[in-house]
Each structure stands twice: as C-alpha cells, then as structure tokens.
Input
Amino acid sequence: MRTFASTPALARSVGGIVTAILSFSALGTVAALWSNPWFVRMTPVGDCEVAFLAASSALAGLYVAVRHPACSAKMAGLGGVINFLGVACPICNKILVAAFGSQLLMSYFDPIRVYVAAVGVIVLAVAIVLEITRTPGVQPSGAPLRIPSGPTHEPSVRG
Output
C-alpha cells in the first residue's frame, strides 16, 4: 500500500524545500551576509543582496522539485554561481582577488554586483522554465500531454 509520504512528488517537494533552506543558509554564511564566526565580510552588505540570495535559493529549490534525473543542470548551476558572485564580498573571494586584484574589483565589479546577482536569478529562472517545458508528457500548465497513438479514422482501401 502506497502512503502519501512515499509519493515521488512529495519527495521532490521536500527535496526542493531542503535545497532552498540549505542553499540560503550555506551561501549566506559563506558570503557573510550576516555575522558568523567563520567568515568576515570586508565590504558592507547591500540592500538587495539578501533578497537576491533568497530568490536564488527559492529558485534552486524549485529547480530541484521539478528536475528529472535525465535532464541537465548546467544552466541552473551557472545561475547559482553567477548569483553567488553577485552577493558575495568581492574582495573576500581569494580567487577573484588573485585573478583581478582588489583595486579592479572594488572599482569596476563592486558597483555592478547587484546586476550580476539579478542576472544569476534570471538564468536560474530560465533554467526552471526550460526544465518544465522539456519534461516529457507534461505541458507548462501541468496538464498531461495527450499524444494520439495512431490514426483516428480507418483509411479506405481501394482495390
């Protein structure tokens, strides 16, 4: 007997919620959007950074809920990385500082970080739309797709 708790839809929904919560908590901590004992932020947190992180985390959770194992997650991953670069402290990221230098990051990257975060959210949203539309047998409205199995009328035979 199958219970409600064992349905695949519920499992995907729970997985999506867990992903959203863990994504928000982990990335917000690493980006030092709030005080924590592990990471220190060297630039002030902007007004929109927490909102963009929340949007990205919610979209990541939604992606996990609608994703099917056979489909690619490259675009969703790219959106998440772009969003993280947009909300993280630019001079706290050792890889960016080593590649570009702190002066360049503060002069050119810091003023556009909010736009980078927005692009990350948009890329993640597009990945979700593509995932929903690529799902076999499901229309974007959620209604099952009806595919005719053969001709609807008998062909006439002429001899």
Notes: Helices lie at 8-30, 49-66, 74-87, 94-100, 102-109, 113-134. The mean pLDDT is 82. The radius of gyration is 22 Å. The chain is about 60% helix and 0% strand.
